[in-house]
Every structure is written in structure tokens, then in C-alpha cells.
Design a protein that fits this description.
Strand content: 15-25%
Strand order of the largest sheet: 1-4-5-13
Number of domains: 3
Structural class: alpha/beta
Oligomer: single chain
Shape: globular
Helix content: 40-55%
Distance between the termini: 40 Å
Radius of gyration: 22 Å
Enzyme class: transferase
Subunit structure: Homodimer.
GO molecular function: 1,4-alpha-oligoglucan phosphorylase activity; thymidine phosphorylase activity
Number of strands: 13
Function: Catalyzes phosphorolysis of the pyrimidine nucleosides uridine, thymidine and 2'-deoxyuridine with the formation of the corresponding pyrimidine base and ribose-1-phosphate.
Number of helices: 17
CATH superfamily of the largest domain: Nucleoside phosphorylase/phosphoribosyltransferase catalytic domain
CATH topology of the largest domain: Pyrimidine Nucleoside Phosphorylase, Chain A, domain 2
Family: Belongs to the thymidine/pyrimidine-nucleoside phosphorylase family.
Order of helices and strands: HHHHEHEHHEHHEHEEHHHHHEEHEEEHEE
Length: 434
């Protein structure tokens, strides 16, 4: 039997913990045998001293094994999961999953709800009235087996150690640490039972990682964990300095995703979708090379197969599909208010974080996990970086259920900068780590 105080001292002195010691800490805390104050001290020791790759793999596996681990081996084919580290206007999963499922990739996706300025796939899917976001393990398994796709909220007993540790990190200032972030994400992905994982790791103003160097460090860490755990893992590092696509919110993003599956998606959104889809198809061993994978993607969209897969996803999870053909059936805000440009020139900045915060303040996001959100509200952008505008042109619209919106319009205005000349943009896809 170990003493927690001795293990805290060991890590505080920058010594590596053994497999048995890490499992003692994770299991003891999950069972309530180790108090918050001691676990807080251990997290702080890890925050300042870090973990080597072996410790990190052991920690991730211990968190994975703290609860249920799904067995998807009864489903034919290579099951591929996708995870995003978060962003603004990130409706990627709504477009991506129907496309790759139409190409034959089995996707068993557990998604979360939005928190703060970042949106959640589960919230967006609830824009379809009746959509069941709480599939049990059997229904989840059978749906992927039959239809090649399922999206559900995280199981109540999937990596429970992560839920407890994340809540503690949130109140002890230990959230922003590469090893702790990587183990949190990957413990859930490994517990979800897929054979391969594609990670969309974002960087920039609207992302958790503010620089591409931080994002690359996190991506490499997660890819190493995945491969060491026997899962083929690829990370695509993408730019989140401006919102993805032209919509930020819930219903407005769903509408944009529907249009994207009809072949009318914004260039930046589709570039991310194509990049992730190619990696998923290759990991599923359904294409000979990237060119072949892209051909399959284009055909899935052009033929309407991907669009029909979205309809199928909604209907088999008990949602109403009327909004797929008639977007006016989606939740609608009472007011659609324009923001006008006060200058003529080129958009040099459309700050993703600021736009995301505006959507949150309208009611489209959560300040805490228990907050209810308004699915109808959000922001529609009319101009993005390097677009030319004239004084008086509409920069964006807010979709609001408030009577007074002057302060919110001012906050949205602060997201934009207009310059005399176009700016040099960072590429959308920075790097692929495999």
C-alpha cells in the first residue's frame, strides 16, 4: 500500500512514478479514497514537473480503465473516431460523418456539449426535434454495425476518472498542461473502442492552444499515446484565428452544414472536412491513396449520398428530418440585426474568440456545464478576412432573442479590423502529424 503524501513528494522532486503508483492514484481518487486536497497537490506537481512518455501512457490507460471500455470488434471494418480540440463555428462533425459513412467508414462517435465560446456537436443535433443524444451501448453498437455511423453523448461510466480529474483541474488552475490535456482526451477516445483515431487539433484565438507550436506539441503527444496504445492515430493541425465557415451558434451552424452536404459549403469549412475525411478513409483502408480518397468524397457529395446519410442519422436517432429540406423549421431567433462597417477597406481581422463570446452572451453557449442554451441564437458572418468592404456594408448579423442588442453589437464590432490593404493569412491546415 502506498501513501499519497509520499507519491506527491516523489513527483514534486521530478521523479517518474511507476505503473503501480499511477494506478493507485487514479483508482484511489475515482473510488473516493484519495481526498481532493491531496489530488490537487498531485496535479500541481505534475503541472510543474511534467510526465515522461511512459508515465503519460500509463496515466491515460488507467483513466481509460476506470470505467467501461466499449468493445466494437463485432462491427466489420476499421472503426474510426474523430475528435476536435474545439473552436468557433466548428460544425465539422455534422458534415464529415455523413460523408465518410457514405464512403463506407464505420464511425462510432461520442461527442460533448459546448462549454464557453466553443460549440458542441450534441447541442447542434438537438436542433432536430426529438433527436436522441443518449444512446445506450447496445443501441450505439447496433447502429454503427447497420448504418456505419452513430453520434451520442459520452456514456455516464466512460472514463469516470477523467470527469473527476477535469473538474478538479478546472478549479485548481491545472487545465492548461499538455500531458493532462492529452491524457484527458485520449482516455475517452481509447475507451470508446474504435480502431483508429483522427484528431483535429486547433490553434489560434478561438482555440485552446493559442499558438501552432503548442498545438503541434499537443498533437504529437496524443498521436504517440494512440500509437503506443495500439490505435493508428493521425492529427490535423488547423487554424482557428477566425470562425470556421460563416455561422456561429447552433441552428445557424446546422443550416450551414446542410448546405455543405448539398455541395454549397464554405471554402474553409470544406478544406478542413476534406482533410479529415481523407485521413479517416485512409485509416479505414478504403482508399489506395489521398487522390482516391478525395475522389470518393467528391462522389459522395455529388451523388447526394452524403446528404442522405445526414437524413438517415437524424431519423434513426428519432429526430425530425423536416428541417433538412426546410431550414425554416430549425429554431429561429426573434431578431436578425445587422452590423454595419464604419470603414472602407479589407477585413484584416475577424477574431474567433470575440465572435464566439458574442454567441455565448446571446445565449448560444454555456458559462458553466449546467447552463441551458438557446439553440436559435448566434452570429452569421457576411465578411471574412481579406474580403473587401465599403462603409455601410453589412459585416455580420446577430440572431437574438433579446429586445436590446446595442452592447452585443458593439462587442461583435470589436472582433473586426479593417485595413487599407489585404493581410497575409496563415494557412488553414498547418501540419498533419502521423
Amino acid at each position: 500500500m502506498y501513501r499519497m503524501v509520499d507519491l506527491i513528494e516523489k513527483k514534486k522532486n521530478n521523479n517518474a512514478l511507476t505503473k503501480e503508483e499511477i494506478e493507485f492514484v487514479v483508482n484511489g481518487y475515482t473510488k473516493g479514497e484519495i481526498p481532493d486536497y491531496q489530488m490537487s497537490a498531485m496535479l500541481m506537481a505534475v503541472y510543474f514537473c511534467g510526465m515522461d512518455s511512459n508515465e503519460l501512457l500509463i496515466l491515460t490507460k488507467a483513466m481509460r480503465d476506470s470505467g467501461d471500455v466499449l468493445d466494437l470488434s463485432g462491427i466489420d471494418g476499421v472503426k474510426v473516431d474523430k475528435h476536435s480540440t474545439g473552436g468557433v463555428g466548428d460544425k465539422t462533425s455534422l458534415v464529415l460523418i455523413p460523408i465518410v459513412a457514405a464512403c463506407g467508414v464505420p464511425v462510432a462517435k461520442m461527442s460533448g456539449r459546448g462549454l464557453g465560446h466553443t460549440g458542441g456537436t450534441i447541442d447542434k443535433l438537438e436542433c432536430f426535434e426529438g433527436f436522441d443524444v443518449n444512446l445506450d451501448a447496445h443501441a450505439f453498437f447496433e447502429q454503427v454495425k447497420r448504418y456505419k455511423m452513430a453520434i451520442t453523448g459520452q456514456s455516464g461510466n466512460l472514463a469516470p476518472a477523467d470527469k473527476l480529474l477535469y473538474a478538479l483541474r478546472d478549479v485548481t488552475g491545472t487545465v492548461n498542461h499538455i500531458a493532462l490535456i492529452a491524457s484527458s482526451i485520449m482516455s475517452k477516445k481509447l475507451a470508446a473502442g474504435c480502431d483508429a483515431i483522427v484528431l483535429d487539433v486547433t490553434w489560434g484565438s478561438g482555440a485552446f492552444m493559442k499558438t501552432k507550436e503548442q498545438a503541434e506539441q499537443l498533437a504529437k503527444c496524443m498521436v504517440e499515446i494512440g500509437k503506443a496504445a495500439g490505435k493508428e492515430t493521425v492529427a490535423v493541425i488547423s487554424n482557428m484565428n477566425e470562425p470556421l465557415g460563416y455561422t456561429v451558434g447552433n441552428a445557424v451552424e446546422v443550416q450551414e452544414a446542410i448546405e455543405a452536404l448539398k455541395g454549397n459549403g464554405p471554402q474553409d469549412l470544406m478544406e478542413i472536412v476534406f482533410s479529415l475525411a481523407i485521413e479517416m478513409i485512409l485509416l479505414a483502408k478504403l482508399a489506395t491513396d489521398r487522390k482516391d480518397a478525395r475522389r470518393q468524397i467528391d462522389e459522395a457529395i455529388k451523388s447526394g449520398a452524403a446528404f442522405e446519410k445526414l437524413r438517415q442519422l437524424v431519423t434513426i436517432q428519432k429526430g425530425s428530418d423536416t428541417a433538412i429540406n426546410n431550414p425554416d423549421e430549425l429554431p429561429q431567433a426573434k431578431h436578425r440585426i445587422p452590423l454595419y462597417s464604419k470603414k472602407t477597406g479589407y477585413i484584416s481581422k475577424c477574431d474567433a474568440l470575440q465572435v464566439g463570446l458574442v454567441s455565448m452572451k446571446l445565449g448560444g453557449g454555456r458559462k458553466s456545464k449546467t447552463d441551458c442554451i438557446d439553440l436559435a441564437v448566434g452570429v452569421t458572418l457576411c465578411k471574412k478576412i481579406n474580403d473587401y468592404v465599403k462603409e455601410g456594408d453589412v459585416l455580420a448579423y446577430i440572431h437574438s432573442n433579446y429586445e436590446k442588442n446595442e452592447d452585443i453589437l458593439c462587442e461583435l464590432e470589436s472582433a473586426y479590423e479593417v485595413s487599407d490593404f489585404p493581410t497575409n493569412e496563415e494557412p488553414l491546415i498547418y501540419k498533419i502529424i502521423s
